[in-house]
Each structure stands twice: as structure tokens, then as C-alpha cells.
## 1
Amino acid sequence: MENQTFKIANGGGKLYPFGGVWPEIADNCFIAPGARIIGNVKIGTGSSIWFNVVIRGDVGSVIIGESSNIQDGSVIHVSSGGINTQIGDDVLIGHMAMVHGTTIEDGGFVGFNAATMDNSRICARGMLAAGSLLSPGKTIGEAELWMGRPAKYVREMSPKMLENNVFGSNGYAKLAQKYLSEYLSLKK
Ligand SMILES: CC(C)(COP(=O)(O)OP(=O)(O)OC[C@H]1O[C@@H](n2cnc3c(N)ncnc32)[C@H](O)[C@@H]1OP(=O)(O)O)[C@@H](O)C(=O)NCCC(=O)NCCS
């Protein structure tokens, strides 16, 4: 269709262009109803974007890897001046989180209602606890737990906590495929 202002993604969420650039979403991603993804955004295979998430790639780019999940009501944005957002594989971002100009490496975890600010980073398997605020330029090291507003280092993640987080992220990847197959069968 010419002059299309949006497209419906697999799952029912909407994709919008910005500056002539459309989001690129791998085929088996689940993009839930109410989700809106705008502009320079790339999402890898098996990732899921849940109800009412906004991902806005306008003044920079958002790249999300494989089998990651962005849960309901979260907002993912970038900052002008080249502060992009990069999210790796098997990352879990809890409900109502705000991720702004941040890099999150593979297996990283952002608890629900947490926020990350410009130029912050969560290294592989690092965790920002629910409700916490990672201030600008701060880095959570590999497999570290940070907590509070502003977030501070608490301790190394225990093997049990790391296992729980892998369980959570795998669980979301599986749940997304169930939602996706239900959506595709109802759509026929
Ligand atoms: C970080 C987390 C794993 C708990 O860590 P923990 O060290 O095992 O925490 P505990 O329950 O043993 O509590 C230890 C102390 O930290 C406090 N605490 C726990 N979680 C906290 C949080 N998110 N922010 C601030 N303080 C917290 C507790 O109140 C307790 O304080 P006290 O010693 O004064 O009583 C948990 O709070 C969390 O963030 N889980 C993520 C849940 C989530 O977002 N899931 C995504 C959706 S699926």
C-alpha cells in the first residue's frame, strides 16, 4: 500500500516509519497489541515486545538481539548525539521499565519499574533490581546486582539468582511463541 503510515506486526502491535526508516523485525518475534515501534529499530529472532511497550528509534537507533523480552508498559528510547540503545540476547526487561540510551549485554536483567539513564551499561548477566535507577554513565559489571535510587553495587549474583534469571528469560521466550501461534491461528 502506498503512503502507508503504519504496519501491523506479528502479534498485533504497530510499526511506524520515522525519517523514511521502518523498524526491522525478525519473522518469529511476538509484538503484542498496543506495542508501538518507531523508526530505526532492529529486533532479532525470537524476541518479544509485550503489551503497550513503546520503542522509539528517532534521534538514534535501538538494536535488540535474539530471545530477549521487553515487558508490558516499558519505554525504550535513545538520546540525540549518538547515544543509542543496544540490547543483547536473552535480556529480560521487566514491566514498566524505562531504558534510555543504554547498552545491556547478553543475559542482562532490568527489574520492573526500574530506569536506566544515558550512557549507562549493564554487562553480561548483570541485574538492576526492581524499582532502581541506574544513573548516567554508570556500569553494572558482569553478573553484579545493583539496587536502589540511585542504584549502588550490592553483591555478585549467586548461581541460584543467575539460574532464576535464565529461567525467567527462557520462560518469556516460550510464552511469546504460544501467543504468536494463537495470534496466527486466529488470523487465518
Ligand atoms: C533484587 C531482588 C532479586 C531481591 O534481592 P535480595 O537481595 O534477594 O533481596 P531480599 O528479598 O533478600 O531483601 C534484602 C533487603 O533488600 C531490600 N530489597 C529487596 N529488593 C529490593 C529492591 N528491588 N529495591 C530496594 N530494596 C530491595 C529488602 O527490603 C531487604 O531490606 P532489609 O534488609 O532492610 O529488610 C528483587 O528485589 C528483584 O528486584 N527482583 C526482580 C523482579 C522483577 O523485576 N521481575 C521482572 C518481571 S518478571
## 2
Amino acid sequence: MRLPRPLENLIDQLQKLPSIGPKTAQRLALYILRLPSEEVSQLARALIDVQERVFPCSKCGNLTDSDPCPICSNPARLGNSLCIVEEASDILSIERTGYNGRYFVLNRSFKLMDDSDPAEMNVQPLLRILNEGKVQEVILALNPTIDGEVVSRFLATAISGHNVKVTRLAYGLPIGGDIEFTDEITLRRALEGRKEF
Ligand SMILES: [Zn+2]
């Protein structure tokens, strides 16, 4: 049986979203079909709104609807600490830790698979912030992947000479984890990053 074309089209669009397979797409499409028209309009408006009104902050790259973003324009945030993350969504996670410094979002997931060269990364916006002279510590909070490692090393080199301390997140054991089942790289890093008790 062939589905009505508009329904098929909606399923196709939903299927393009991450983690949405054909069955979930179909279920969502049928759910949307049964929604009151007012709710469908709100959903459609929210989709357009997010596209039109949310953009990267011109200073830090955080997603925002006002420029500079609320973090950059908050005078209570510490200007001496700059945390570098890969994606704006990483900020939400770091914020939950109570970190009160500022951020810089790379906003492009660097992938070695794409044959990209970290030397092609535009580090000028980052160097501009460092040249203001307020930052004393740069925290590299990139993902613990090979790509994250390569980019971290590249950034550490690009930053050197700016008279700032460069640190990175410690690797360690997950809370509630089990040493017996921890991979050797994580365990070795946890051992290297051990702290006095
Ligand atoms: Zn900002």
C-alpha cells in the first residue's frame, strides 16, 4: 500500500533526523497527523523560529538569540578562565558542574576521517580573545577521542606564547564504575591524573 504523498514526505523528513529510524519516523508522522491543528502550527513555528532566530555568539560561538550571548555579557562570569569545547551543546554539560568562567566553542567537529588538517582551523577568533589579556587559563574540554586529542595538541601549540596556563580535563574512572572492567587507556590516564587523597 502506498501512503498519501504528504504523509510519506513527512516520514522522509523525520527520518533525516539523528537516531530516527523508519519505524520511529512513521510513528511520529502518524502522531503529528492526529494532533490538533493549533499544536501542529506551534511545532512548525518552533522549527522555523529556531532556524531564523538562533545563531552562534560572535564572541564565543555559543548558540544564542542575542549577541553577545548571556554568558559573554554576564559581568559576574570570570574572565580569567576560558573553556574550549567542541560544540555549543557541551556548554550545557559544563554549566551543570558550576563552572563560572567563559567559553569558546570550536563549532565544527574536527574529523580526521574527513582528511581535514587541524592547521586549517581558524584560530584567529580565539587568539583575539587571548590578546585582550584577561584570560589566564585555557581549559581544553574536547572529547576524549583521537580527533579531540589532535585538536587539543594543535590548540595548545597555537596558544603557547600567549602567556596563559593551558590545562585539559582529567580522564578518569566513571562514578560507580568498576576497575576490573575499565579499559587500559582510561585506567592509565586515571593513574596519571591521580590526586592526593
Ligand atoms: Zn558568547
## 3
Amino acid sequence: MKVLITGGAGFIGSHLSEALLARGHEVTVLDNLSTGRLENIAALESHPKFHLVIGDILNEFLVDKLVERADWVFHLAAAVGVDLIVKDPLRSLMTNIKGSEIVLENVYRYHRKVLITSTSEIYGKNKNGPLKEEDDRILGSPLKSRWSYSTSKAVDEILAYVYWREKKVPTVIVRLFNTVGPRQTGHYGMVIPRFVEQALQGKDITVYGAGTQTRCFVYVKDVAEAMIRLMENQDAVGQVFNIGNGEEEISIKDLAERIIGMTASPSRIVYVPYDEAYEEGFEDMQRRVPDTSKAARYIGFKPTVNLDGILEMVISEFRKSLAPAQESVSL
Ligand SMILES: NC(=O)c1ccc[n+]([C@@H]2O[C@H](COP(=O)([O-])OP(=O)(O)OC[C@H]3O[C@@H](n4cnc5c(N)ncnc54)[C@H](O)[C@@H]3O)[C@@H](O)[C@H]2O)c1
């Protein structure tokens, strides 16, 4: 297959590129490097079946040409996470809504197959758990930019679903729950890399809110594998799937303590009110646990690495990247 990955220089996209190349597919990445990094794909650049195009999904001409040349499209490019959307709302919304519309329109024009990457943020404040694909979305006011990420991804899902229903474009939607592992950076608020970096530098670990909110973390390579298997599965077309690890739920406070223990760090935990961390009146989700039984039924999805295993990998990666800085401090 010739595969186009939008956002392929990002955290998940780079692991997906590797997994597709390992299966013998030809991979073209389209990325504007806004949050993606060349170092994520540095090891792939000499691969004969890997191509990188630096450009924007809002460039309709470019997307048209690249979709025409592809068989499959994995659409990952997005302004990712609540932090980014709160800080840069207009550009983020354009990327997530208009960008997806451009990708879908071209997939329709050339009769291609597409996988759309949505998020567990879709469920908003729904505290129930484990959450099933058809569960309700519970959101706050649209005037709070915090909810825009959720809404922009919901629009993407609706567009993808309608293109399937009305125009028979083969679309598959995945709702990713907190995906973690090597190459994720803490720069855009992602909790595990942020805590690990703080712990290894002996800085205060900043927990937003009371730290009682719970999350589940899934290993990025399990996510990449699930995305490919869903694209391979004809029955998955026109459907949405939760992908996450519902087996290990942990509060953010316990996560901070676990990271302090695993890194033997002298760091203290400091609680930062949401208003300070994000914006006034910020509301968080108290709980986010996936029900992944549908993905298990369709593709035999089962997470292969538990939280400790993921943390070990992330800590080891950060130890290596921080080592020169720490050595120079001690000189
Ligand atoms: N990481 C998670 O836990 C998680 C959870 C739910 C959903 N997702 C979704 O998975 C996808 C990948 O997320 P990620 O964690 O790898 O984040 P990431 O920021 O590492 O990846 C996004 C990539 O898209 C690129 N990009 C952004 N705007 C672009 C544009 N206009 N044109 C071209 N490229 C652009 C970025 O440079 C980056 O490489 C996103 O759609 C995100 O919403 C991620």
C-alpha cells in the first residue's frame, strides 16, 4: 500500500510510520513540524520507502496531490491537546476542522480509504466508566475554549461519518485515550513526559487541580498496531473505536508519586489550581476510562505494556536526553 500520514512527524505518527514500513508499505508523511519534530523520524529518512513532505494540511493543492498518490490516508495532523487549544484557539480550530474537511474531501475525490484520529476528550465531563463508543458527550459552555478541542474532534468524527453514510467514503474513526511512550514531549502539557522531566531535574512536580482525577495510559506502539489493523479490517469501515488501556486506572497524584519513586527523585508535589494552569473557570474531567471491548472484538485489541513498563521506557529516554545537561551542571 501507498500510505499518506498527515502529522507523521509527531509522536504517534512517527511510531505509526515505523510500523507501516515494517509491514512493507510505502509511507509519505505530511507535516508542518508545528509540534512534530524531525528527530522523531530521523531514523526513517534513509529508508527507501519513506518520504517526508514538509507542508500544511490547510494547503488544498498539496493535500490533493498527496491523496491522489496514496491508497490509504491516516489523518493525525491536528492541534493536539487542551493546552494548545486554550493558548492558540483560532489557529487550532482551523487546523482541526478545516484541515480534516480538506483531507476528507480529497479522500472522497480520489476514492481512497481514511482513518480519522479522534480523542477521549469527546466524552467531556461524562464521569461514567468504562466509556463505550455510544456513550453521551457532556460538555461545558462553548465560550470556554477548553471544550473546543473536544468539539473540533467531534466535528471531524461527524464529517467522517457523514462522508461514509452519504458518499460511501470508507472511513474508520479511532478515539484515542491518553497515549504515551518514547518521543512524547511535555511541552504541550502532556502529563507523563512533564512529570518525568520534572522528577529527573529535581524540580517541583506540578499537579493541576487536586490530583484526584484519574486517567488510563496506553502504549503508543499498541495504538499504532491497532490503527493499522483497523484499516486492514473491512468490517471496521463506517465505525468508531475506543483505543486505550482500561485495565489500569490511576489518579494523577498517584502517578506523580509513582514517578518520584521510580526515578528516586527528591522532587516535591505542588498543586496548581486549574485557573492558573489553564484559564479562569477551567473544568477538568474527573475520570476517563475506556471500554475497548469493541476493538477487542474486531481486531483482538489488547494492550501489551502496562504503566510501569511504559514509565520505565520514558524515564530511560529522558535520562539519556537530559544527561549532557546534567553533566555540564555538575562540572
Ligand atoms: N497523544 C494522545 O494521547 C492523543 C489522544 C487522543 C487523540 N490524539 C490524536 O492523535 C493525533 C496525533 O497526536 P500526537 O499525540 O502524536 O501529537 P503530535 O502533536 O505529536 O502530532 C501532531 C502532528 O501534526 C502536525 N501538524 C499540526 N498541524 C498541522 C498542519 N496544519 N499541517 C500539517 N501538520 C500539522 C504536528 O507538527 C505534529 O507532528 C492527533 O490527531 C491527536 O488529536 C492523541
